[in-house]
Amino acid sequence: MRLFWFALLLVLNFVILSNGDSIKASSRPDVVNIGALFTFNSTIGRVAKIAIEAAIEDVNSDSSVLGGTKLAITMQDTKCSGFIGMAKALQFMETDSVAIIGPQSSVIAHVISQVANELQVPLLSFAATDPTLTSIQFPFFVRMTQSDLYQMAAVADVIDYYGWRDVIAVYIDDDFGRNGIAALGDQLEQKHCRISYKVRIPPVSRVSRRDMLDLLVKVAAVESRVVLLHVNPDLGLKLFAVAQSLGMMGNGYVWIATDWLSSVLDSSWPLPSATMDTMQGVLVLRQHIPDSERNRKFYSRWKNLTGGSLGLNSYGMYAYDTVWLVAHAINTFFIEGGNISFSNDSRLQNTGGGRLQLEAMSIFSGGKLLLNSILQSSFLGLTGPIKFNSDQSLINPAYDVVNVIGTGFRRIGYWCSYSGLSVVPPETLYGRPANRSSGNQQLYSVIWPGESTVKPRGWVAVNNGKHLRIGVPYRVSFKEFVTQVSKNDMVKGLCIDVFTAAVNLLPYAVQYKFIPYGDGHKNPSYNELVGLITTDVVDAVVGDIAIVTNRTKIVDFTQPYIESGLYVVAPVRKLNSGGWAFLRPFTPQMWCIFAGFFLFVGVVVWILEHRMNTEFRGPPRNQVVTIVWFSFSTLFFAHRQNTLSTLGRLVVIIWLFVVLIINSSYTASLTSILTVQHLSSPINGINSLMKNNEPIGFQVGSFTEHYLSEELGISKSRLIPLGSPEEFATALQRGPKNGGIAALVEERPNCKFRIVGEEFTKSGWGFAFPKDSPLAVDFSTAILTLSEDGELQRIYDKWLSKSSCTSDSTELESDRLHFKSFWGLYLSCGVAILLALLIHIVQLVLQFRRHFPKEPDSASSSTSQASSLSRSFQRFVSFVNDKEEQFKNRSKRREMDASVSSEENRDESGRSPKRREIEIL
């Protein structure tokens, strides 16, 4: 019986397990439908079609990938038409496809992504590079290639690497072109570069040669010579041919093509020699594919698949990897319990008749799970590691930088988002610390258009008959700098000579004409003159234009060609030496301190020498005379008294050193006063001018008024505009009390007056150009060249030597010698003297206490205590007044008397009375 139940149990288990296996197997269908959408007859499509078919074959032949399930793919040709592409994409939605590979066009991707979002079907594009196709707006769009956001970052790094600042963008006017160029503009802005000119090409199937010719003629009329071409392959090749016919593929031009050209070179190489001739020296970006053994095997297989008639480009390899990504994701989808099922969208029911059966489209129930499986996939494909970041973009974006040369092309470096430009493959750099410093950016040498190895400057001054309009100030004062010659309307001056010399050094011809600004009666406002650049009245401003902050905000300046700054110019008077000139080297304070120190040193030396030096003793009157004589005789090092004590000698040595320095300073200052003409002014500089309320003059039109009022906070009511040197002189001579001014703040001193104080601003004169004008850079280089070869100095000498003041070397009165110049010396000397005096006093007190012990206390009143202190003080004074030798002799006699008295008081037993008293007690 037990055997029967055991056999029955085995049969039931077998049946249950068999049913479970059959249930599990039924969850994996035999065939899974996917779609592919691209243009078959295109540079990318021809390669992608073969790559997708090869990938489907490889997946279906490997049972370990889908566990027996096969992929069935339906390919639709969009025929380079956005409308047809949208219609074909909607047909996929009627066939229960779980994923769509494509589309190739970014324009179609925008529309189809909306449908994919609604029906929850993942859309995997291997060629749509529009950076605005983001996961936020289109969560079911998966980009299986690199976004143009990274490609434009690579272009910006290349432009910055070569030092160019302006770029011309030629692009197709659709989502692919516009959004790519917008990304380039953002990247260039971070590099302080810009797109100076945009050429939009209509997105039509055929653009006539005449239209291309018209567009490129406009490009040739722009100063920039760096051209970026962001179009489709067929249009790009035609543009190169037209550019060559216009001479735009020669010296001076820079052409950069995005990866559309690398796709042509990779898939159609070798191109006809006539086609290659039209693109010599072009820089091209190509999506970087790491070298591997798997890639080399696939390249060999590709030759068999195509018979060598078609090359393999990066988009074809991404298309191959896309099929494998879908296969891995579907396998993960089944493992995680996913089930392929579709449900109708109620919103598409009853939409009306017609052949377009919208109600046939259904929502993929497992779409979100399959999308999650796709984004979490990670495997090694032909293009390298296939893995997505949080933005649903492939990791490690990288590009090759290629130079078209002869009948082929040469890779000159790499770009990756990790480290920028390098000659080392990106996969090698990923194992090193990231380094995007400018010194780490590297590329190999380039053969530029025109077969030149010299890096193009990137722009030229266009010679189209248009002259540069150069604004110059029509000055009525200081005409040596710049002014118009009334007779023949010529402009001349130092600034004009510097400008023409700089123009002659430019490596290109510049046609220009001067436009004077001003009425000829007063100097014009320089702020207004500079502002004419921003309103396109003039193209540049040349003159004595100071480079100041408010001007640099609206224009660019060249390198300063002359230094300038603001000075305070005031009336001065000559100082004659006079009969009391010998007192002028020192200020009254200095004289008082000097005399006080003489007496102080004399008293200290007397204290230190009084007890042991007979030359410092005698009647009080003689001692006072000795102190005064000794003190002031040290001024001439003629003191006759010798110092015997160590401390006294130390004090005298220090004091003599101080006297030596002060004596030398006095002699030098007095010599200057008696031999050099000196000037005096009540104004000492800008600080003293700011403290009073007297009127201040400035030159009309200069930046001085703005600086004094806005920067220094001086009231505008104090500022008096003046127009010429004659007005300067008249106003200064009158003075503030007679309707004139106290001082003039100006960039240039007047010969009749002098600069007081120091220069309180530091700037220079430069030529002004519009913001980001390349002319400013080239003129700066020319100015530096003029400075280095001495031509700039020769121009200065030509215009300034004749009008320079003959007494320019005469300066205002030098500051008199103040105590602040010697306080450290006095402090050191005073400390040393006080320290010596303190040591001497301590020695006296110790000697006094040792030889004159304190009397024993007795029951006494306050009167007796005061009397005791008075006696002690008198004894101390007498002790101090004693000679050292007398004191020592008296001390010896006192000790001998004390010894004799002690002997007389001893008894026969040799005991003193005090000892006997102790024994009795």
From TrEMBL:
**Membrane association type:** Multi-pass membrane protein
Q: Where is the signal peptide?
A: 1-20
- Disordered, as annotated region: 884-921
Q: Where in the cell is it found?
A: Membrane
Q: List each copy of the Ionotropic glutamate receptor C-terminal domain by range.
A: 469-802
User: What superkingdom heads the lineage?
Assistant: Eukaryota
Principal place of residence: membrane
Biased region (Basic and acidic residues) positions are 903-921
Q: Which GO terms describe its cellular component?
A: membrane
Membrane-crossing residues? 588-608, 620-638, 650-674, 823-846
Protein's recorded name: Glutamate receptor
From which lineage does this chain's organism come? Eukaryota, Viridiplantae, Streptophyta, Embryophyta, Tracheophyta
